[in-house]
Fold each of these.
Amino acid sequence: MPKNLKYKLATPILEKLDDELQTRGIGMCPGCGEELAIRYALRVMGKNTMVFTAPGCSPSALAAGTDKGSTLGIPSMGCYMTNLPPIASGVKRYLKRKGQDVNIICIAGDGVSGDVGFQPLSGAAERGENIIYMCLDNEAYMNTGIQRSGSTPRHSWTTTTPVGIAGRGKPQLPKYLPLLMALHGGVSYAATATPYYMEDFVNKLMKAKSVTDGMAYLHVLAACPTGWRAPADSFMQLSKLAVETNYFPIWESSYGQFRFTKTPKKVKPITAFTSAMGRFKHFTDEEIESFQDMVDVRYEQMQLQCSRHTGNEEKT
Ligand SMILES: Cc1ncc(C[n+]2csc(CCOP(=O)(O)OP(=O)(O)O)c2C)c(N)n1
Ligand code: SF4
């Protein structure tokens, strides 16, 4: 085997997975990051699970199906953008009262989680509703045509933040939703992840599943080749570069104790990430500098949170 090729045994991951729960073909774009995240999340949750979702790309893999029914082998329900956590919480409470211990997982995009449906999510988090909530962050409202969301990064092109004479992409700084969620008192476990670091992602799903006394919130960077204007086979590479440039820090918080679970050995400049996508191709040197500044500030915020618990993260 060539020296520069590293491989890892898949056993530590596979032994934690239940059977494949997707039953038919799904309606997502080729190379979609959401699809892989959903597939593995459900295999960790297992058959004793109910899925709740809201409008966006994820229902294409969950509730809507491509023929006459659901694509799933477990119960699922499509909610509105504005009532996903309350519905899921109500079902969890009802089942608990009946003595049934069922995993309840909500799966939705950043537009639902951080913008349109943020108030009910924040309310459920503050009350400590015992549900698992997984936000698939593709950094825009993709399903309706790549509109900007609160999570879209500064200067990024979207169809509502065009690049031309009048505009230079999104002018505002983004909302950092995973930290906002982790700081809710009723969130017992919060974590960020990408499917590139699958073992880390699977371990975090296991921890989320084991929470019995509050909300478990997972924030997954779901690379979107279509909306990010990148080749269909690039999502793994983009997920890796997002971590290697500190664009998407990988951490977890257990009852308010933060720690990084992955940190790059050598941090790459942000251009390694931005130059791989059409949504940033208009960047001037000044815009790159301003983008790098946004990344540095966010990383420093997380360093501050994690500073009491450093030393046991894995170098990537
Ligand atoms: C209250 C409300 N506003 C707008 C819509 C239209 N709508 C359907 S899907 C969607 C985009 C959802 O974006 P996001 O949550 O980021 O998920 P993604 O499509 O990116 O996976 C919108 C705006 C809606 N269904 N309900
Ligand atoms: S638009 Fe993006 S997130 Fe939606 S299905 Fe296509 S690749 Fe996936």
Note: The chain has ten helices and nine strands.
Amino acid sequence: MSDLNFDTLAVHEGLARGHGESIGTPIHAVAAFQFETLEEMADVFQGREEGYQYARIQNPTLAALEARLAALEVARAAVVTSTGQSATLLALIALARAGDHIVATNTLFGGSLGLLNVVLPGFGITATLCDNNPASLEAAIQPNTRAILVETVGNPALDVPDFDALVRIARAHNIALIVDNTWGAAGALCQPLALRADIVVESLTKWASGHGSVMGGAVLTRVGYIPNAPAFNDPDATGVSLNSRHGDQAFAVRARYLGLHQMGMTLSPHSAWQINQGLETLSLRMARESQTACDLAAWLETQPQIAWVSHTSRPDHPFFKAAQRYLRCQPSVLTFGVRGGQAGASSVLGNLKLILLAANLGDTRSLAAHPWTTTHGRLQEPAKLKAGVRPEMIRLTVGLEDFTDLKRDLEQALATVVLEARETVASR
Ligand SMILES: Cc1ncc(COP(=O)(O)O)c(C=O)c1O
């Protein structure tokens, strides 16, 4: 169905067609699949033939979601996982082994920083974190580097990578460019593989499913085989490498074997069904949430209690040009600094009546958070500042509510900052 456009693929791809087929993807709530002969069963179990055998490894509901995601992200292959966190871990360990090295931006999601700083070093894989600019990332590459890991939009710094430059660097050093495209909303906001990145990982918990009601993740590849990683080029017991045996499916085969078969990072079919359903309205939600975020960013800039606003739609944003070049629409997340520092931010967050105080992203409801004390609360202060987090910062992920209602809620919460400042002056 590759000649169809994004919105059409989002509702049709992965669906079985024909007499008697259901018009939506069924949930296959089973643990195992039948065979007619032992020979057929042995062929599938030993990898000579494709087929469903045991639901930890593959299931038709998951396969339908993988087909749809691959179409939306213009990927050669997709493997879905239980969470976004497991997808990132899986992509890194599929490429790197003990003694290998990863280069990444220091504005990555906190869970990814934890993998690179704490979890993987325990297994002999090290990482260098640096600012999100091509020169710093290239300077950090070592002979044992297997990949560069960046995010489509850094959270909450809202930094957008220079994809063209990073693709050139990855090719020149014969390593993989991995993009966490969680904010890219399964392709609705950005398609890193179309920009020639090699691997996409993403959390489907956010915009892709879109209702804050399910968790999931995915690993997707553009070319399917990985040129420089020994895990893909070294011969197996029969003398054949993964790249030679599986061609453009090599990465997906290894990811499924490692992540699902061996480690059990499998998504439940019920969750896969829910995510598939969410994808059907993804474009509509993204367009609406994006527009409201742009409107709120412009309005917040005019408010006296606001020290600064950060959103890539604002022409003075450092990543305004990169967002125009690489993103299909503006992100639906903005951050702003409240006058009065952390106390000001705390006052606003404590007085919101409509917007919920919660740390998810890409929900139908608007959610506000204070990254300094929550999502990045475990980091040391210098690391927080490097990640673009400030004590006075509020992160707002914009949902589907009416703009006027969101504005009114923020207005009344911001008014408490002024009141408290006056009260402070009066009490002196
Ligand atoms: C950019 C990014 N990547 C990955 C994850 C992890 O996703 P999950 O919570 O589905 O494990 C998150 C979660 O917030 C995220 O923001």
Note: The longest strand covers residues 145-151.
